[in-house]
Design goal:
The protein is of the alpha+beta class and 196 residues long. Helix content is 26%, strand content 31%. A hairpin with a 2-residue loop joins strand 7 (148-151) and strand 8.
């Protein structure tokens, strides 16, 4: 599972886009994000991502096997880069942190962990975000052909969804809606104003 997260992050860094308004990123914010990446470099991925995590709104228990979503903000991108460099014993600079965001404008990105009973359960997913009455469809989705078997009869898929953030109020809440091909619907609520 860890290798899929790493591959997803690497793919994400190759994409053009990030969550949040890049223009609002100050040197102080970059330094704080990098410090977060350094301090939490040895934490598990799940613990590292906790501030950017929301669980499916009907999750019964918030365990490692609960369906959840992560929102990739500029702060998280910078912190993830610093974490990777810290763990690889590479230098971390303010200029690198700021430069990282230049290619990541106007895109809101989510990683979603979903569970199903068949290896191909994630095929045919539909993803939208809603804010008030506004609805946006994902302009790109990365969904595995086959989910990873995690236990008898249980499969886990890591999916990535990319949305144009134009016309979204980045200080208001949004809902990430995922519809599975079997008709099951999942909702993940994000209070954007409370997320770095």
């Amino acid at each position: 599972m860890k290798r899929y997260w790493i591959l997803g992050i690497l793919f994400f860094f190759c994409m053009q886009g990030s969550a949040g308004a890049v223009a609002n990123i100050t040197n102080d914010t970059v330094a704080k994000a990098q410090q977060y990446g350094i301090v939490y470099a040895k934490k598990s991925t799940q613990d590292f991502l906790k501030p950017w995590t929301t669980y499916e709104e009907e999750a019964v228990s918030l365990t490692e096997h609960a369906e959840r979503a992560y929102i990739y903000t500029p702060y998280l991108l910078i912190a993830s880069d610093a974490r990777e460099k810290q763990n690889g014993k590479k230098p971390i600079s303010l200029a690198d942190g700021k430069g990282l965001l230049k290619d990541y404008e106007k895109t809101m990105t989510f990683q979603v962990i979903l569970y199903g009973k068949k290896a191909d359960f994630a095929q045919g997913l539909n993803a939208t975000i809603t804010q008030g009455k506004a609805v946006k469809k994902a302009y790109q989705m990365i969904v595995p052909d086959k989910a990873e078997a995690v236990s008898d009869g249980q499969y886990c898929a890591q999916c990535y969804f990319y949305f144009d953030e134009e016309d979204l109020a980045l200080n208001q809440s949004i809902v990430l809606n995922i519809a599975k091909k079997d008709g099951t619907k999942k909702k993940f609520n994000f209070a954007l104003a409370q997320i770095d």
